[in-house]
Amino acid sequence: MLWKYTERLSQINFLIKQKATGCPKEFAKKLGITERAWYKWRDSLVNDLGLPIEYCPINRTYFYKEEGTFEMGFRKLSDTQKSNISGGNIFSNFFAHCTFSSVSHFSFASPYDIVRRY
Questions:
Q1: What are the CA-CA distances from residue 77 to residues 6, 80, 117 (Å)?
Q2: How many domains would you assign to the chain?
Q3: Is there a contact between 13 and 109 (Cβ–Cβ < 8 Å)?
Q4: Other residues' Cβ atoms within 10 Å of the Cβ of residue 29
Q5: Going by C-beta distance under 8 Å and a sequence separation of 6 or more, which residues neighbour residue 88?
Q6: pTM of the full predicted structure?
Q7: 3-state secondary structure of 29
Q8: What is the pLDDT of residues 19-53, one digit of tens each?
Q9: Residues 6+ apart with CB under 8 A from 59
Q10: Maximum Cα–Cα distance for the chain, whole Å?
Q11: Where residue 10 sits, what CATH number does that domain have?
Q12: Containing structural domain, residue 35
């Protein structure tokens, strides 16, 4: 089931990046879902994941209003990247005196973009 969602997210991302979604009804048809289901997906992507998805009625397509990449999957870290990881009790005093807002940062790229890099 997870694979199905991953594939759908990849397809959504790819079509949005290509600005080839069509209107909501056409986009839903391309995804093999109902238009109502697409709106639920869109709301989750925008509200839960913070993806900057917009619709242009003139061009009849969805697009990302910011440049970036959306990545899913596992990437092995190099030794250099591993050595730069820190965590644990070092930050416990710092975090005890901080308040946080729910801001998420995401980048948008299709798995096809990721595979080409490696």
A1: 22, 8, 14
A2: 1
A3: yes
A4: 14
A5: none
A6: 0.62
A7: helix
A8: 999 999 999 999 999 999 999 999 999 999 899 99
A9: 19
A10: 53
A11: 1.10.10
A12: 1-86+102-118
